[in-house]
Design brief:
Length: 100
């Protein structure tokens, strides 16, 4: 796998977690709205990385579960950011070697 492939997969992971956080925020903001359908985010693996699919469910919003999911999304985003930064550092090192 190439360095650009690694950074693209990490970027897709960060985008998927951003979508997940948006759905969680929407669930918390609308938890008291009558008739609100909770949004559930599922992550699927694709050839180019990870994709987040948001779909409404019939379950009620549980603030404790939403906050736990938010912490999980934050940690996942950070992990993908570290991979992205490492790939960018490797790319920069290769370009430095190539110039010399």
């Amino acid at each position: 796998m190439s360095i650009s492939g690694i950074t693209n997969i990490a970027l897709s992971g960060m985008q998927a977690q951003t979508t997940r956080v948006s759905a969680i925020a929407n669930n918390i903001a609308n938890s008291g709205t009558p008739g609100y359908a909770k949004l559930n985010t599922s992550l699927t693996s694709t050839v180019s990385g990870v994709q987040a699919i948001v779909s409404p469910t019939d379950s009620d919003v549980d603030p404790a579960t939403e906050l736990t999911d938010l912490i999980d999304a934050e940690q996942s985003y950070k992990a993908n950011a570290v991979v992205f930064e490492t790939g960018a550092d490797m790319w920069e090192m290769l370009m430095s070697i190539k110039r010399d």
